[in-house]
TrEMBL record, chain A:
InterPro entries: Ub_conjugating_enzyme, UBC, UBQ-conjugating_enzyme/RWD. Keywords: Transferase, Ubl conjugation pathway. It is an enzyme of class 2 (transferase). Residues 6-154 form the UBC core domain. The keyword Transferase applies. It comes from Sipha flava. This is N-terminal E2 ubiquitin-conjugating enzyme. The keyword GTP-binding does not apply. One of its GO terms (biological process) is protein ubiquitination.
Automatic annotation (TrEMBL), chain B:
CDD domains: RING-H2_APC11. Residues 43-86 form the RING-type domain. Belongs to the RING-box family. It comes from Sipha flava (yellow sugarcane aphid). PANTHER family: RING BOX. The keyword Cell division applies. GO terms for cellular component: anaphase-promoting complex. The gene is LOC112688714. It comes from the Eukaryota. GO terms for molecular function: cullin family protein binding; ubiquitin protein ligase activity; zinc ion binding. This is Anaphase-promoting complex subunit 11. GO terms for biological process: anaphase-promoting complex-dependent catabolic process; cell division.
Amino acid sequence: MAGKTPSEKRLHKELISLVKEPPPGMIVDADQAEQNLNTWTINMQGAEGTLYDGELFQLQFKFGSSYPFESPEVTFVGQNIPVHPHVYSNGHICLSILTDDWSPALSVQSVCLSIISMLSSCKEKKRPPDNSFYVKTCNKNPKKTKWWYHDDKV
Amino acid sequence: MSDQPESFMRIVIKEFLGVGNWRWSFTNDRICGICRVQFEICCPNCDNPEAQCPIAWGRCSHAFHLHCVLKWLDTEHANNKCPICRQNWELRVY
């Protein structure tokens, strides 16, 4: 692993374990990730018995050079953005561990599990109340948004 | 001596090389929760494998490479919290 930066070393370890033992319903695009360790795409299936059962989603992770000391930029991408009170129609996710509550002990796997669990506990599919305003005015990078974490019920 | 079978081979050891294996026993975790490298190996910020890369124990019982946890505590979002349990990070001193 000579020549790799500390962040690349950790990402490489995470990639190997995610390919070997993926959490249920999640597949990382390993070829893409190996070509560019700083951008990963995870294919995620809505969990059985939830409002998202049978749906397919794509999560994109972008890592900065100081990962894991800094959180990754995580957004839903592709055709199907889950309709959820914490997911904006542009794919941005309002989830505190992605900004203020990030910890370097978290990982791609633990973030994916948090997101699937956030989807699974949803009782009613709807967009955040401020969706149209936010999507028109926000920065492309969700980490630039000053998130207001108000609701931890869903 | 006379009981030994005739085929018994006598050898003389002229020298031997001992090989030791060690590991920390302070925690069930084998790897640093920040860099994911074994505690017996230096953190990825040490470029020399022989580097002195000490372990830091917190009062909350979590352990990390000292270099890793210091780098975390230096960031804007750390707020002096342990990366694993989010309690206040206090170095345990022996």
